[in-house]
Structure formats: structure tokens, C-alpha cells
Design brief:
The structure is a single chain. By secondary structure, this protein is α/β, with parallel strands linked by helices. The strands form 2 sheets. It has a 6-stranded mixed β-sheet, with helices on both faces. Helix 14 links the parallel strand 6 and strand 7. Helix 5 packs across helix 9, helix 6 runs antiparallel to helix 8 and helix 14 runs parallel beside helix 16. It is globular.
Length: 464
């Protein structure tokens, strides 16, 4: 039969199939199976080693949350940790804090001038006992209007730079509610630092700052150098001292430190000192992560510290940190005479107690080691020595002595009581009185707290 076009063979032709040796087939398939098994086993072993490495890294990660209201000292504590465990990184950041120091000074000068205008213009109509006392103290100084008008005229160029400096540092970040100042998100240093094309280091000749920030910083520096005498004169003026002592002028807590140091700071080659970095005031938004390597008992641990900014919506961050090793809660007990900016009816110490209550009773945080730092004890002592009465602001204090020992113990007892009543896991509470500006004392506490947290982590994870 002839083959049909397009066909190799016809359906009527017999097809001869070659037979193969069965042993050869078995051997070939056996070889294939062994090779595949070896490859598979090698992949499995590599995956197991990778999993073990990741597990070991996770077990050696110590996650610590810094919690507390705005201005409680969280960022300062983070800098203290950085100073102790990673001081080289902090040294690298020093130039970036220069414009922030300038901003703190500009803001303080503007607040003094604004409060002076308000107080001097309204003093004649203030018939309160306190108002009359201030008027009596100012009377020997005579007419101050001409003197302060001259100072204001000289200082206008400096004060006028506050908003532009704040805008450059904030990088376009704005806060609702009409609040002004510098508000930065995590990693703000990178935003104000120009990087080379390979994105690994700052461009030379910029002082570590981006062109826009460097320009406004340079202008602020030159202006501050030019008017440093007027700034010093304003700060040391007897009328300003009287109003400060009578609490008619209220400044940020760091303002006196920087104004006292105006001669040192107003220098062309100024570089922030460690004390400057600890005193500087900067509002943080969001959650900032900081990493330190800590050696303990011959082992290295990666300490991940999360600074939860005071402007963060409360409790929105909790679900992301249910595996936190520890919580360090900072309560500024010096703030007994202050009220929340967003709610002038709420005392700041009461607010700290409410926030601490919420943390103790939160189920997602129940497994975290809990450390309480009753902070800013140095400011508390100064206020009490100046005669500020606690019972005027916290009526439950009653007639207890207005001494540091009694006041500090009163606040400590209240926080301990909150913990006893509301802590759902009945965990231990470690309490420390702290002043974040006292480097030696704070770093002693940091070592003790750090070791306690890591030992707790070791016990929990089973690390040897």
C-alpha cells in the first residue's frame, strides 16, 4: 500500500517497537531518583539552616518600646541609650542637630518678647493679688517700653526666621489644630542630609545638611552671631527675671539652658555638645526605630528601641508591638503644674496616670517586661524649692509637706497603685526616679534596666 501524503506510515503497516533491557531502565530511574533526592535534601538542609539562623536572630532581638505623653523624655532617653551603646553614631549626627538648637533659641526669644508685650500691656488692669505683686516688683525699674522696643527691633530679623527654619526641618510635615513648631517623622536626619549619587554618604562641603536646610541654618547662625549681645541682654534683664520667677513667662524646659549658653553657641564653628543634644527640644511623629548591639555574658543581642512619638494617635500602634520584650514608660512628675496643650483641662500627671492605666490593662502588651521611669526629678526639685505648691494643682495632695521626698513618694505610690489594680498579668514593676539630663546617673540606670530586660528575655526564649 502506498503511503498517504503527510503520513510517515500507514495504519496498515506493522510497527516494530524496540525492546529495552529492564535492568537498564531500573538503573536509569534509580540514578535519577538518587540525584533528585540529593538535590532535594540539600535544599531542605539549607532551608533548615536559614530558618535556624533567622530564629536565632529573632531570639536575640530585644524589642523595647518607649511610651509616655509628649515631652515626657522618651527621645532624650533614646539618646542616652545611643550615647552609651552607639556613641559613634551620635557623634556622626551632631552637625544635623545644629539647626534644631538654633530653632530652640529662636522660639525662646520669640516667646519672651510675646509674653513681655502681653504682660506689660495688661499689668495696669490686672487687679489680682499675683498681678499686683508683679507690678510692685517691676515698679523700681521704671518705664520699660523704650528699652524693650529697642531690643525687639534688633531681634526682629532673628525671630522672623523661626517659621522658615521650622518648615525646612519639618520637611513639609504639618500638624492639625493650629500648633506650630518643628514636627519631624522617623528618619528626619536623612531628609535634611544630601547624599552622594550612590546614596551612601553625605556630599562634601555641606556640613551634612541638604542645601535648603544648610542655607537657612547658615543665615540663622550669622544672624544669631550678630545679635548675641541683644539676646543675652534680653535674657538677663531684671524684668524678664521677675516675670519668670512669678511664672508670668513660661518657656520650654530646655530654653534656659540654651539662653544661658548663648555666647558658646553663637560662634561660627559651633558644633552641638552632648549636653546640647540631650537638652534640645524636637517633636517627633510616628514611631522611630533605633538599633543597638549589646554585649552581655559573652553574647551579643540586638536591642531594637521604638520611640513612639507623643503626637501619635494613642493605642493605634499597640497591635504592631504585641511581641515587645519590654515597655519603658516615662512619666514627667515635674509636670504637676502643667496641662495638656490639646486639652487645657487635663493635668499632665493625671494624663500620665491614665495612659499608664491603659498600658497595664492592655491584653496585647501583657507579656512585656514593665519599667516605670518617674522622670524630670531635677525640674521637680527646682519647682518645689521655688515655692510652687503641689496642692494648688492637685487637690488630692492635701496638706502633705511640699518637699521633694514627700511629693516624689506621693506620685510613686499613685503609679504603683495603678499597676496593682489594673495590671492583668500581675507582672513585676520596676520603678526608677530619673533625670535624663544627668548622664552618669541615667547611664547607671540604663545598664541596670538593660541587663534586667535582657535576662528576662533570655529566660523567656530559653537562650543560654
Amino acid at each position: 500500500m502506498s503511503k498517504r501524503p503527510g503520513h510517515v506510515y500507514s495504519t496498515s503497516e506493522p510497527i516494530l517497537m524496540q525492546t529495552f533491557d529492564g535492568a537498564a531502565i531500573d538503573k536509569e530511574y534509580q540514578f535519577y531518583d538518587e540525584d533528585a533526592a540529593r538535590v532535594s535534601q540539600k535544599i531542605d538542609e539549607e532551608l533548615k539552616r536559614d530558618w535556624a539562623r533567622r530564629k536565632d536572630i529573632q531570639r536575640r532581638q530585644v524589642k523595647v518600646m518607649l511610651l509616655g505623653q509628649a515631652e515626657s523624655g522618651k527621645s532624650t532617653l533614646q539618646k542616652q541609650f545611643q550615647l552609651y551603646y552607639a556613641h559613634h553614631a551620635l557623634d556622626h549626627e551632631r552637625p544635623l542637630w545644629r539647626p534644631v538648637v538654633y530653632f530652640n533659641i529662636l522660639k525662646a526669644v520669640r516667646m519672651i518678647l510675646d509674653e513681655l508685650d502681653h504682660e506689660l500691656n495688661n499689668l495696669s488692669i490686672d487687679d489680682s493679688v499675683e498681678g499686683q505683686a508683679v507690678a510692685h516688683a517691676l515698679a523700681p525699674l521704671g518705664d520699660l517700653s523704650g528699652e524693650f522696643s529697642r531690643l525687639r527691633t534688633k531681634l526682629v530679623p532673628l525671630v522672623a526666621m523661626e517659621d522658615s527654619l521650622a518648615s525646612e526641618l519639618s520637611g513639609g510635615v504639618a500638624v492639625t489644630g493650629g500648633r506650630t513648631g518643628v514636627y519631624v517623622r522617623a528618619g528626619w536626619q536623612a531628609l535634611v542630609t544630601p547624599l552622594s549619587p550612590n546614596r551612601s554618604h553625605a556630599l562634601p562641603g555641606t556640613g551634612g545638611l541638604s542645601p535648603a536646610v544648610a542655607q537657612v541654618t547658615s543665615l540663622a547662625s550669622r544672624t544669631l552671631i550678630a545679635v548675641q549681645n541683644e539676646v543675652d541682654e534680653l535674657w538677663k534683664h531684671p524684668a524678664v527675671r521677675i516675670l519668670l520667677n512669678n511664672r508670668r513667662i513660661r518657656l520650654d524646659e530646655s530654653a534656659p539652658f540654651f539662653l544661658d549658653s548663648i555666647r558658646r553657641i553663637a560662634q561660627p564653628d559651633y558644633l552641638p555638645s552632648t549636653a546640647d543634644l540631650l537638652n534640645v527640644r524636637l517633636q517627633t511623629l510616628g514611631v522611630a526605630e533605633h538599633s543597638f548591639d549589646i554585649e552581655l555574658c559573652g553574647s551579643r543581642y540586638n536591642w531594637l528601641m521604638y520611640d513612639v512619638g507623643g503626637a501619635v494617635r494613642r493605642h493605634a500602634w499597640v497591635p504592631y508591638f504585641d511581641d515587645a520584650t519590654a515597655i519603658i514608660f516615662l512619666a514627667p512628675i515635674s509636670a504637676f503644674d502643667q496641662y495638656l496643650e490639646e486639652d487645657p483641662r487635663t493635668n499632665r500627671v493625671d494624663d500620665s496616670l491614665q495612659l499608664f492605666t491603659a498600658i497595664c490593662s492592655n491584653k496585647l502588651l501583657k507579656n512585656s517586661h514593665l519599667v516605670l521611669m518617674l522622670n524630670k526629678t531635677d525640674l521637680l526639685q527646682k519647682k518645689l524649692e521655688a515655692g510652687v505648691k503641689v496642692r494648688k494643682y492637685i487637690t488630692s495632695y492635701g496638706d502633705r509637706p511640699n518637699t521633694y521626698a514627700d511629693v516624689s513618694e506621693y506620685f510613686r505610690a499613685h503609679f504603683i497603685q495603678v499597676h496593682k489594680r489594673h495590671d492583668i498579668s500581675r507582672r513585676a514593676l520596676y520603678v526608677h526616679f530619673t533625670s535624663m539630663l544627668d548622664i552618669r546617673a541615667t547611664q547607671d540606670i540604663i545598664v541596670n534596666v538593660g541587663e534586667a530586660i535582657i535576662r528576662s528575655h533570655i529566660a523567656k526564649t530559653g537562650l543560654a
